[in-house]
Design brief:
Shape: elongated
Strand content: 25-35%
Low-confidence stretches: 1-13
Number of strands: 27
Mean pLDDT: 94
Largest sheet: 8 strands, antiparallel
C-alpha cells in the first residue's frame, strides 16, 4: 500500500511511482519510505512506512542517538592499568591488573602504529624504573556481561571482520590482516604474513603457488583458494592454488580469543620497550603501587566511526558502554532498556523498534520507517542534535564514498547506510530551504536482484528527494555568487541599483514563489530566480542589497517577504502597501508634493478564507498617498538633480479591494529622467524603460502612483 499523506506537495516528482519503479526494476523487493519535516514533526510521505523492515546498519542510528542522549559529550571509555605489589630495584613483583571499559580505538585507526597505546603503557611502567615484571597479568573483562559473540547473528558472520568478538579489552578492532604473496616458483607455498604480528594468530598454510592455465582463447583461468577459520582458536587455514603472476592480496579476519590477543599485544609492547616479563601464577596481589588511566578517543570520534564508517565493533561497544555507564551493567538487555527509556523521553513509540543488537547485524532487528524518522527528527531538535547529524556520512565521505555521486550539492544530505543479505537501508537527513527532512528508506526481500542495482535504486530515490526539497537551491547559489561579485560596490542605493540591474531580463511568471516545497498551500520555492513577478523581483534585489554576508541572504529575504521572518502563507506580506511597505522595516511610504490621500480597508478575511485560513484580526485600513496619473507624468518628465537614488513605486488600483496592483523600482540618476525597472507581464521579463513612457499605458487600471523608500537594515 502507498499512502501520500500530503500528495499535493509532491506534484513535481512521481513519488507515487516509486513502488512501480521498484516492482519493475527489482521484482519482489519491498519498499518502505518515510519523509518527515523536522520543524513541524509532520510526516510528508509514507510508503508502507508503518510496516516493519529489517534495518541492517541503520540500526546504528538508534544506538548512537541513545548514547549521545545519556552520555556526556566528554565521555571517553577508559582502560585502567594498576600495579598491585612491591618494587625492589627495577623489579616489580605482584599483579598487573588491566581493566577494560570497552575502548574500541586501541588500534591503528587513530594511531600510526596499532601498538601505540600498549607502548604508552610500557613507557609509563618504565618511567617508574621497572624493567622486570615477575608475577601475573590479570585482564579484567567484567565490564561486559553476557556473550561476546552476539547470539542473534548468523554463524558465518563470526568469520568476517564485521563479526569480531565484542570484548571490553580490544586490540586492533579484534582483527588481524593477513597478506599473501605468491611463492618464488610453481609448487612453492605462498608467502604469508600477519599484521600486526604479536605472535598470536597462527596460519596453517597449504596454499600452493601455481601458473594459472589458459583456455582456448588464451584467457587466464581463475584459480580457487579458500580460507577457513577455526571456530575457537586463533588459527586460519589457507588451501588451494594461488596465481604466481598475482602481486599480492590481503584479507582481514576476526581473531578468536580476543582477550588473549590483547595480552599478546601487551607483552609484545613490553618486549619492544625493554620490559622482561616472567609469569608467576601464585604472585600475591599486594598493595596498589601505581595506576594509569588511558583513553584513545572521545565519544564524538567513536560516533564518527559508527555512523560514517559503519564500524560494527564500535557500535556494539558503545551500546554496552552506555548501558554500563548508566546502569552498572554492560550488556545487551540493559542497553535495550536504556534505548526504550530514551525513546519514551523524546516522545517516540518504542513499538516501532525491535532491537536485538547495537549494530544491526541481526536479521531479527526491525524498524518502522515512520518511527525511524520520528526519532531522527527528535534528534535534530535535540540539544546535542548538531553533533549527532555531523556524525553521519554523505556522498563522497565514509560509507557514502561511492554513493549518490551524481549529486553535485553533496552538502545537502547526510545519511547512514545499511546492508546485509537481501536488505538495504538509508536513514538520515536532507537539508532544504527553511527546513530539514528526516528520511528513512528501505529495500527488503531483494532476493536475486543485484546489490548494485538495489543501491542504485535507493540512491536514485534519495537524490530525487534532495532535488525536490531544494528546488530553489540553484537560485540561492546564484544569489550568493552575485553578492560575492558585488563586494566592491558600496552605498545602499548603489547596491540597489546594481542588483536590480543584474536581475534584468529574467522571465516573468506570476506567483513563482511560495512557502517552500513542504507547504500544503503554496509548495513553491522560497528562493527563485528562474522567473519572477513584480514583487519577487524587488524582494530578491532588496535582499541582495541589504544582506551583510552571503550566508545571511536567505534569512534577509524571508524577513522582507514575511512578518518577523516567520514563513507561512498566513504571515506572508500579501498586500504591497498595507503589509510589504506598511510594516516599515525594509521600506516606508513617502509623500510627493501635490499628492492625494485615500483610505481603504483590505478584505483579508475573504482573502484568507479562499485558502481555508481563518483571519481573526480586524481588517486593516491603509492610508494611501498617491499622485494622480497626470501629476505623475509631470514628475516622471523632470530631470533628477540629486544623487543616485532608488525608490519604489506602487501603482494604485482603481478597485478599492486592493491597495496596489503592480510595483517596481524607480532609478533616479543625476541629470536624467526617472527610469522604471519592473517585471513586465506584457513583455514577459524584467525590463528598464522611462517611467513616463510606462505611465502612458497605465490609464485603464491605475488611479495613480505611490512612492516608497527602501530602508537599510
Amino acid at each position: 500500500m502507498i499512502t501520500l499523506s500530503v500528495s499535493s506537495l509532491f506534484a513535481d516528482i512521481p513519488l507515487d511511482s516509486f513502488q512501480v519503479y521498484v516492482d519493475s526494476l527489482l521484482p519482489g523487493s519491498k519498499l518502505g519510505l518515510s519523509v518527515r519535516s523536522v520543524s513541524t514533526g509532520k510526516e510528508l510521505l509514507n510508503i508502507q512506512a508503518d510496516e516493519y523492515f529489517t534495518p541492517a546498519s541503520t540500526m546504528k542510528t538508534l544506538s548512537t542517538a541513545t548514547a549521545l542522549h545519556w552520555l556526556p559529550l566528554d565521555y571517553a571509555p577508559e582502560t585502567k592499568v594498576t600495579l598491585n605489589g612491591n618494587m625492589q630495584g627495577g623489579t616489580f613483583r605482584g599483579v598487573l591488573n588491566v581493566r577494560g571499559e570497552g575502548d574500541p580505538n586501541l588500534s591503528a585507526r587513530y594511531y600510526k602504529d596499532p601498538l601505540y597505546w600498549f607502548y604508552a603503557v610500557a613507557d609509563s611502567i618504565r618511567a617508574l624504573g621497572i624493567d622486570f615484571i615477575q608475577g601475573r597479568i590479570d585482564l579484567d573483562s567484567s565490564y561486559y556481561s553476557g556473550p561476546w559473540k552476539p547470539e542473534h547473528w548468523r554463524k558465518d558472520f563470526y568469520d568476517f571482520w564485521y563479526g569480531a568478538e565484542v570484548t571490553p579489552l580490544q586490540f586492533n578492532d579484534n582483527c588481524a590482516l593477513i597478506r599473501i604473496k605468491p611463492g618464488a616458483k610453481e609448487g612453492d607455498l605462498v608467502q604469508v604474513s600477519v599484521h600486526p604480528d604479536v605472535g598470536y594468530v597462527r596460519i596453517e598454510n597449504k596454499l600452493v603457488t601455481k601458473v594459472a592455465p589458459r583456455n582456448k582463447r588464451k584467457r587466464k583461468q581463475k584459480l580457487k583458494w579458500t580460507r577457513e577459520m577455526d571456530p575457537d582458536k586463533p588459527v586460519v587455514k589457507l588451501e588451494g592454488e594461488f596465481d604466481i603472476e598475482s602481486d599480492s592480496t590481503q584479507i582481514t579476519v576476526p581473531v578468536r580469543g580476543a582477550i588473549g590477543y590483547f595480552k599478546a599485544a601487551l607483552l609484545t609492547a613490553f618486549e619492544k620497550r625493554g620490559i622482561r616479563y616472567a609469569e608467576a601464577p601464585d604472585a600475591p596481589m599486594g598493595a596498589k603501587l601505581q595506576q594509569f588511566s588511558f583513553s584513545a578517543a572521545p565519544l564524538l570520534s567513536v560516533m564518527d566511526e559508527i555512523n560514517q564508517k559503519s564500524q560494527n565493533l564500535h557500535a556494539e561497544s558503545l551500546f554496552r558502554n552506555m548501558a554500563a555507564f548508566m546502569t552498572g551493567e554492560g550488556n545487551v538487555e540493559k542497553a535495550k532498556a536504556m534505548e526504550a527509556k530514551f525513546l519514551n523521553e523524546i516522545g517516540v513509540d518504542t513499538s516501532g523498534f525491535v532491537v536485538f543488537d547495537g549494530c544491526g547485524l541481526s536479521s531479527k532487528n526491525k524498524i518502522k520507517p515512520s518511527s525511524e524518522t520520528q526519532m531522527l527528527a527528535a534528534m535534530a531538535r535535540h540539544p546535542k542534535g548538531d553533533f549527532y547529524i555531523n556524525s553521519f556520512a554523505r556522498p563522497g565521505i565514509g560509507s557514502g564514498s561511492k554513493r549518490m555521486m551524481d549529486l553535485q550539492e553533496t552538502w545537502l544530505t547526510k545519511f547512514k547506510t545499511g546492508y546485509i543479505s537481501e536488505v538495504h537501508g538509508l536513514a538520515g537527513y536532507i537539508f532544504a530551504m527553511g527546513d530539514t527532512l528526516s528520511v528513512a528508506l528501505y529495500l527488503n526481500e531483494t532476493g536475486k536482484n543485484k546489490d548494485a542495482d538495489c543501491k542504485d535504486m535507493m540512491d536514485s530515490i534519495w537524490v530525487s528527494l534532495v532535488r525536490w526539497a531544494n528546488a530553489g537551491n540553484a537560485s540561492y547559489m546564484k544569489m550568493k555568487d552575485m553578492w560575492i561579485a558585488a563586494q566592491g560596490i558600496s552605498g545602499f542605493h548603489e547596491r540597489l541599483e546594481y542588483f536590480s540591474r543584474m536581475l534584468l531580463k529574467i522571465p516573468y511568471r506570476i506567483g513563482p514563489m511560495g512557502e517552500g516545497t513542504f507547504d500544503p498551500i503554496e509548495p513553491k520555492p522560497l528562493v527563485y530566480l528562474d522567473s519572477v513577478d513584480c514583487v519577487t523581483y524587488m524582494e530578491h534585489a532588496l535582499a541582495l542589497a541589504n544582506a551583510s554576508h552571503e550566508d545571511s541572504l536567505f534569512n534577509v529575504l524571508q524577513r522582507i517577504r514575511y512578518f518577523d521572518g516567520k514563513i507561512s502563507y498566513r504571515t506572508r506580506k500579501h498586500y504591497l502597501l498595507t503589509d510589504w511597505v506598511g510594516e516599515g522595516k525594509f521600506s516606508r511610504g513617502i509623500r510627493i508634493n501635490g499628492d492625494t490621500t485615500i483610505v481603504r480597508t483590505m478584505p483579508k478575511k475573504k482573502f484568507f478564507a479562499s485558502k481555508k485560513i481563518k483571519f481573526d484580526d480586524p481588517e486593516p485600513q491603509v492610508q494611501i498617498n498617491y499622485l494622480t496619473l497626470e501629476k505623475a507624468k509631470a514628475w516622471a518628465s523632470a530631470v533628477h538633480e540629486g544623487d543616485l537614488t532608488v525608490l519604489g513605486v506602487a501603482f494604485i488600483s482603481k478597485l478599492d479591494i486592493i491597495d496596489a496592483y503592480h510595483t517596481g523600482f524607480i532609478v533616479l540618476r543625476p541629470g536624467q529622467v526617472p527610469m522604471l525597472r519592473h517585471a513586465s507581464q506584457i513583455l514577459k521579463k524584467t525590463v528598464e524603460l522611462p517611467f513616463a513612457e510606462y505611465l502612458e499605458t497605465a490609464k485603464k487600471k491605475a488611479l495613480g502612483v505611490s512612492f516608497f523608500e527602501f530602508v537599510k537594515q
